[in-house]
Amino acid sequence: MTIRHIVCWKLNALTPRKKADDAAAIAAGLQALVGVVPEIRVLTVGPDVAGDENWDVALIADFDDLEALGRYQNHPEHKKVGAFIRTVVADRLAVDLKV
Question: Most buried residue, 50, 66, 85, 92, by CB count within 10 Å?
């Protein structure tokens, strides 16, 4: 069994430049967790490229099981990235699927 963790964020930035900078910072912070948090099997993150009224940034990450996902979420380095994300996000959507 694999758990696929999907998260989407709407950013609170008011200008396209600030939104792009915040999206890039989120992506860089989460991507930096690969190799640091051993539970991560696959991680893809980036800004929406369509530019419509979609969510601004999305994360798709795979974990062996729910326990591995929990260890990822509680890892000190993930918590640091999460603290930054909470300062630039207006809304969040998350779902975890068994794939």
Answer: 85
